[in-house]
Hints:
Helix content is 34%, strand content 15%. The protein is built from twelve helices and twelve strands. It has an eight-stranded parallel sheet. The protein has a two-stranded antiparallel sheet with strand order 1-2. A two-stranded antiparallel ribbon has the order 6-7. The chain is globular.
Amino acid sequence: MNAPDATPASAAPQSRPPRRLGALRVSAMGLGCMGMTFAYGERDDAESLATIDRARTLGITFLDTAEMYGPFTNEELVGRAIAGRRDDFVIATKFGITFDSQNSADLRSRGLDGSPENARRAADASLKRLGIDTIDLFYQHRRDPAVPIEETVGGMAELVKAGKVRHLGLSEVGAETIRRAHAVHPIAAVQSEYSLWERGVEASVLPTLRELGIGFVAYSPLGRGFLTGAVTGTADLVATDYRRHDPRFGAGNAERNAAAIAIIRSVADKHGATPAQIALAWVLAQGDDVVPIPGTKRRTRLEENAGALAITLDADDLARLDGIAAGIVGERYAPAGMAMLDR
């Protein structure tokens, strides 16, 4: 049996069939590209480009980006990665968060703009940066309370009619917003944080999505790295890492939240897997309409994550893992970030 923290030297192409997000078919696991240019320390473009290339060979072809990641630089990097092979990938990007381009990492400098005019502007700019003619999945990144969701989705629907966007999505929205949006135009997917330590969508969001036939995309399925056991608190992070402001990584909370790692490791030992693979296998087990998008900028981590696709958790595993969330302390974001969530 492998040691629980061992990183597989290689990973075979994914063994799970594609999953559906509404009418959109995507790989069972996606790749979150944010950290390649934003939030998690220094860039390494060569390694990031190699990581996206490796993802393609592993069958992980659903790429997630956004205009605000950088800002703008993440879409540009993804555009470089997919140049000449557009049809090999499903591309998702997001609009709706505004920012001071000189201080994009400061939540206090951000606002929201869900106007149809901003949707059109953002889509055109994203298409140019990505170097593509059509965005496969276009999300509103955060709901703008100043603009009725019907107006926002109506503007997004015009982009579908114009052929600039194929499918529409929403991020971090509640059940009522989902219903109102879906009544205007079919919503393919809703993206929210979901993991062993964050299960808030289970009460009303997931049941609503399943009633309406909408898929779910789980971001931060590794708890921003905490659930892998590789990060135990802010002392492990470089000065530019935004997790230094994440309440769950802060002093006191991190020590209490570390109890989750012991449970995950015990299940990992049973499967000869790593904690990251078990955390992802748990998300994958929550339904064929759930697609995790773990983020990384390194091939070794990507290959490790891909190994989760070969793991099947049994009822005992799931029962042991399901209790983790109850012991987690700390909000998901600092106050400014929490204020941008629609519940």
